[in-house]
Amino acid sequence: MAVSRIGYISLYVTDLDAARRHYVEVVGLRETGRDAHGRVYLQAADNQDHHCLILTEALHAGIDHVAFKVGEVEDLAEAQAAVRARGIAVRDVPAGEVLGAGAAIAFTLPSGQEMRLLHHLDKIGYATGMRNPNPVPPHGKPGARVTHLDHLLLAGERPAATAQFLIEVLDFNLSEQVVAPDGSVIAAFTTCGHTMHDLAIAPGPNGHLHHIAFGLESRSDVIDAVDIMKEAGTTLMEYGPTRHGVSGVTTIYFFDPAGNRNEVYNGAYQAGGVPGLVPPIVWQAQEFPRGAFYYESVVPESFFAEVT
């Protein structure tokens, strides 16, 4: 099958208006629709799909589901059979249940989050337009200059089991991993395309979200994003801007009003694109503080303790 890339993430937020302002005026997404359930749909500048983020008001923050796109409609049936062969229930999601989205299949990952696969999302065009466009969005637009939704990090009690499922059932590739002294996998970074990671798994309670991440064009855009966040009074993490050893990116973490952790970053390397083409980078557990935060070489206690 051909799982090609992340499609969108659906988030729970506790104040829909505050969350919408955050993702438009701080992160820099554009609103592309609202549905009869009151959900808000948002998209980044460099993507033609209808949305990359859905906001649903709820009593708690966290992840509703994550959706990945497949290359062909026929891939959905192949994926459904492969997931069911692992003893995992699969349900059909009809076209239109999500605004702008075609039919999908849904199932629960070993780490407890719902994952969906779909082929179709309506095309709305780039933010700069589709006829003789300018190469960049207007500099007067609100928020950071994010280009795309890049990845998410999920929490799970057994990260290795989720990584194994993604690799063996959905043909994801392993790019980097953190291993304990006994060789067991503590955290895994997986990709279904040419980016360094689309979906990562780290230790934590099942069914929870660690963060969602958006890409920026340059390291200077990361600095500009921090200025925007500070001016808006956004809650930032203890470190940053900083650099990861894992992936090597320049990054900053912050929180939406509901407490969902966000990241904007620049500089990830290109992955092999073919499962098993290149071996994964391995981080030993004792070196992971440098892998997580290269400059500081210390992981704040809150970094893995705070999930939604």
Write a brief structural summary.
With 308 residues, the chain is an alpha/beta fold.
Structural class: alpha/beta
* Helix and strand run: EHEEEEHEEEEHEEEEHEEEEHH
Shape: globular
Unreliable stretches: none
What topology, given as strand order, has the largest sheet?
14-15-16-13-9-12-11-10-17
Task: Please outline the major beta sheet.
Answer: 9 strands, mixed
On the 0-100 scale, what is the average pLDDT?
93
Helical residue percent band? 10-25%
**Treating each run of at least 4 consecutive H or I residues as one helix, how many helices?**
6
Any idea what the radius of gyration is? 18 Å
Number of strands: 17
Q: Note the gap between the termini.
A: 31 Å
Topology:
Elements: E1 3-13, H1 16-26, E2 30-34, E3 40-43, E4 53-57, E5 62-70, H2 74-85, E6 91-93, E7 104-108, E8 114-118, E9 146-156, H3 159-170, E10 173-179, E11 185-191, E12 199-203, E13 208-216, H4 219-232, E14 242-243, E15 250-255, E16 261-266, E17 281-284, H5 288-292, H6 301-305
Parallel strand pairs: 1-4, 5-8, 9-12, 10-17, 13-16
Antiparallel strand pairs: 1-5, 2-3, 3-4, 6-7, 7-8, 9-13, 10-11, 11-12, 14-15, 15-16
Question: Could you describe the 3D structure shown?
Answer:
This protein has 308 residues and is of the alpha/beta class. The protein is built from six helices and 17 strands. Strand 2 and strand 3 form a beta hairpin. The protein is globular.
